Amino acid sequence: MGDVQAKIAARGRSSDIKRLPKVFQKPLPHSAAARKQAYRKLADKTAASIWSSSPRYNRLAMRDLRMQRPVRFFHKATAKFTRRQHNIMVQLRTGHIGLNGHLFRIGKSLTPDCPHCEGVTETVAHFLMACPRYERERAGLQRRARRPDSVAELLTNPDAFRRVLRFVDASKRLSTIFGDEA
Length: 182
Ligand SMILES: [Zn+2]
Known about the structure:
2 strands; 60% helix
Protein backbone atom coordinates (compact mmCIF):
# COMPACT_ATOMS: atom_id res chain seq x y z
CA MET A 1 0.00 0.00 0.00
CA GLY A 2 2.92 2.33 0.63
CA ASP A 3 3.86 2.63 -3.04
CA VAL A 4 0.50 3.85 -4.25
CA GLN A 5 0.12 6.33 -1.46
CA ALA A 6 3.66 7.58 -1.95
CA LYS A 7 2.95 8.19 -5.63
CA ILE A 8 -0.21 10.06 -4.83
CA ALA A 9 1.47 12.11 -2.16
CA ALA A 10 4.44 12.85 -4.43
CA ARG A 11 2.41 13.79 -7.48
CA GLY A 12 1.02 16.99 -6.01
CA ARG A 13 4.35 18.44 -5.01
CA SER A 14 6.96 16.78 -7.21
CA SER A 15 8.47 20.09 -8.26
CA ASP A 16 8.81 21.18 -4.66
CA ILE A 17 10.57 17.97 -3.73
CA LYS A 18 13.49 18.71 -6.08
CA ARG A 19 14.20 21.98 -4.29
CA LEU A 20 14.47 20.33 -0.90
CA PRO A 21 17.79 19.18 0.55
CA LYS A 22 18.52 15.53 -0.26
CA VAL A 23 17.63 14.27 3.17
CA PHE A 24 14.06 15.50 2.74
CA GLN A 25 13.52 14.03 -0.72
CA LYS A 26 12.08 10.76 0.51
CA PRO A 27 9.13 9.84 -1.70
CA LEU A 28 7.30 7.89 1.00
CA PRO A 29 5.26 9.85 3.54
CA HIS A 30 6.54 8.51 6.83
CA SER A 31 4.31 10.31 9.25
CA ALA A 32 0.88 8.89 9.97
CA ALA A 33 -0.63 12.31 9.20
CA ALA A 34 0.90 12.38 5.71
CA ARG A 35 -0.25 8.86 4.98
CA LYS A 36 -3.72 9.69 6.21
CA GLN A 37 -3.86 12.75 3.98
CA ALA A 38 -2.74 10.78 0.94
CA TYR A 39 -5.29 8.11 1.71
CA ARG A 40 -8.07 10.65 2.12
CA LYS A 41 -7.24 12.20 -1.24
CA LEU A 42 -7.55 8.81 -2.86
CA ALA A 43 -10.77 8.07 -1.02
CA ASP A 44 -12.33 11.34 -2.17
CA LYS A 45 -11.25 10.69 -5.74
CA THR A 46 -12.61 7.16 -5.65
CA ALA A 47 -15.86 8.29 -4.08
CA ALA A 48 -16.29 10.83 -6.86
CA SER A 49 -15.88 8.16 -9.49
CA ILE A 50 -18.27 5.85 -7.66
CA TRP A 51 -20.99 8.45 -7.90
CA SER A 52 -20.61 8.88 -11.64
CA SER A 53 -20.20 5.26 -12.56
CA SER A 54 -21.92 2.03 -13.43
CA PRO A 55 -22.65 -0.60 -10.78
CA ARG A 56 -19.82 -2.72 -12.17
CA TYR A 57 -17.31 0.08 -11.94
CA ASN A 58 -18.72 0.90 -8.53
CA ARG A 59 -17.70 -2.53 -7.25
CA LEU A 60 -14.27 -2.34 -8.82
CA ALA A 61 -13.64 1.08 -7.34
CA MET A 62 -14.62 -0.13 -3.90
CA ARG A 63 -12.31 -3.10 -4.23
CA ASP A 64 -9.45 -0.89 -5.34
CA LEU A 65 -10.09 1.41 -2.45
CA ARG A 66 -10.01 -1.44 0.00
CA MET A 67 -6.67 -2.56 -1.37
CA GLN A 68 -5.14 0.65 -0.04
CA ARG A 69 -5.49 -0.74 3.44
CA PRO A 70 -3.97 -3.96 4.71
CA VAL A 71 -6.49 -6.80 4.57
CA ARG A 72 -6.31 -7.34 8.31
CA PHE A 73 -7.80 -3.89 8.99
CA PHE A 74 -11.28 -5.16 8.27
CA HIS A 75 -10.89 -8.26 10.43
CA LYS A 76 -9.56 -6.15 13.24
CA ALA A 77 -12.33 -3.57 12.90
CA THR A 78 -15.07 -6.22 12.98
CA ALA A 79 -13.51 -8.60 15.50
CA LYS A 80 -16.17 -7.84 18.10
CA PHE A 81 -19.06 -7.90 15.66
CA THR A 82 -21.66 -10.64 15.59
CA ARG A 83 -21.63 -12.86 12.52
CA ARG A 84 -24.73 -11.05 11.30
CA GLN A 85 -23.10 -7.63 11.65
CA HIS A 86 -19.95 -8.90 9.96
CA ASN A 87 -21.95 -10.32 7.06
CA ILE A 88 -23.84 -7.08 6.56
CA MET A 89 -20.60 -5.10 6.35
CA VAL A 90 -19.01 -7.60 3.95
CA GLN A 91 -22.05 -7.56 1.69
CA LEU A 92 -22.28 -3.76 1.64
CA ARG A 93 -18.60 -3.54 0.80
CA THR A 94 -18.69 -6.13 -1.99
CA GLY A 95 -22.07 -5.06 -3.37
CA HIS A 96 -23.20 -8.71 -3.27
CA ILE A 97 -26.26 -7.90 -1.26
CA GLY A 98 -30.05 -8.20 -1.32
CA LEU A 99 -30.63 -4.91 -3.11
CA ASN A 100 -32.29 -4.99 -6.52
CA GLY A 101 -29.23 -3.76 -8.45
CA HIS A 102 -27.37 -6.91 -7.45
CA LEU A 103 -30.39 -9.23 -7.38
CA PHE A 104 -31.19 -8.27 -10.98
CA ARG A 105 -27.65 -9.07 -12.12
CA ILE A 106 -27.86 -12.57 -10.68
CA GLY A 107 -31.36 -13.19 -12.01
CA LYS A 108 -33.17 -12.95 -8.69
CA SER A 109 -35.12 -9.78 -9.36
CA LEU A 110 -37.14 -8.75 -12.39
CA THR A 111 -35.88 -5.19 -12.10
CA PRO A 112 -32.70 -3.43 -10.94
CA ASP A 113 -34.80 -0.48 -9.81
CA CYS A 114 -35.15 0.66 -6.23
CA PRO A 115 -38.61 -0.36 -4.91
CA HIS A 116 -39.20 3.29 -4.00
CA CYS A 117 -37.56 5.05 -6.95
CA GLU A 118 -38.68 4.09 -10.43
CA GLY A 119 -35.89 4.17 -13.00
CA VAL A 120 -33.13 4.35 -10.38
CA THR A 121 -30.90 1.30 -9.88
CA GLU A 122 -30.84 0.18 -6.28
CA THR A 123 -27.11 0.17 -5.60
CA VAL A 124 -25.42 0.23 -2.22
CA ALA A 125 -24.68 3.93 -2.84
CA HIS A 126 -28.34 4.64 -3.59
CA PHE A 127 -29.46 2.80 -0.48
CA LEU A 128 -26.95 4.41 1.88
CA MET A 129 -26.73 7.89 0.44
CA ALA A 130 -29.64 8.85 -1.75
CA CYS A 131 -32.92 6.96 -1.46
CA PRO A 132 -35.51 9.43 -0.13
CA ARG A 133 -37.35 6.59 1.58
CA TYR A 134 -34.64 6.37 4.24
CA GLU A 135 -34.08 10.07 4.75
CA ARG A 136 -35.09 9.92 8.41
CA GLU A 137 -32.85 6.93 9.15
CA ARG A 138 -30.01 8.69 7.33
CA ALA A 139 -29.91 11.41 9.98
CA GLY A 140 -28.21 8.93 12.30
CA LEU A 141 -25.89 7.73 9.57
CA GLN A 142 -24.69 11.16 8.50
CA ARG A 143 -23.86 13.25 11.51
CA ARG A 144 -22.63 16.28 9.59
CA ALA A 145 -25.25 17.47 7.12
CA ARG A 146 -22.98 20.01 5.49
CA ARG A 147 -20.18 17.60 4.69
CA PRO A 148 -21.68 14.11 4.67
CA ASP A 149 -19.38 11.10 4.71
CA SER A 150 -18.94 9.57 1.27
CA VAL A 151 -20.09 6.02 0.66
CA ALA A 152 -16.44 5.00 0.50
CA GLU A 153 -15.79 6.62 3.86
CA LEU A 154 -18.76 4.84 5.45
CA LEU A 155 -17.60 1.46 4.20
CA THR A 156 -13.87 1.76 4.80
CA ASN A 157 -13.59 3.83 7.97
CA PRO A 158 -14.12 1.54 10.98
CA ASP A 159 -15.36 4.51 12.99
CA ALA A 160 -18.44 4.57 10.75
CA PHE A 161 -19.28 0.86 10.78
CA ARG A 162 -21.59 0.97 13.81
CA ARG A 163 -23.50 3.88 12.32
CA VAL A 164 -23.87 1.96 9.05
CA LEU A 165 -25.21 -1.09 10.89
CA ARG A 166 -27.72 1.02 12.79
CA PHE A 167 -28.88 2.52 9.50
CA VAL A 168 -29.33 -0.89 7.91
CA ASP A 169 -31.38 -2.08 10.89
CA ALA A 170 -33.47 1.09 11.02
CA SER A 171 -34.21 0.94 7.28
CA LYS A 172 -35.47 -2.67 7.57
CA ARG A 173 -34.63 -3.00 3.87
CA LEU A 174 -32.57 -6.14 4.43
CA SER A 175 -34.53 -7.69 7.27
CA THR A 176 -35.92 -10.48 5.08
CA ILE A 177 -32.33 -11.65 4.63
CA PHE A 178 -30.67 -10.78 7.91
CA GLY A 179 -33.69 -10.65 10.19
CA ASP A 180 -34.18 -7.76 12.57
CA GLU A 181 -31.48 -6.82 14.97
CA ALA A 182 -31.09 -9.45 17.67
ZN1 LIG B 1 -34.77 4.58 -3.71
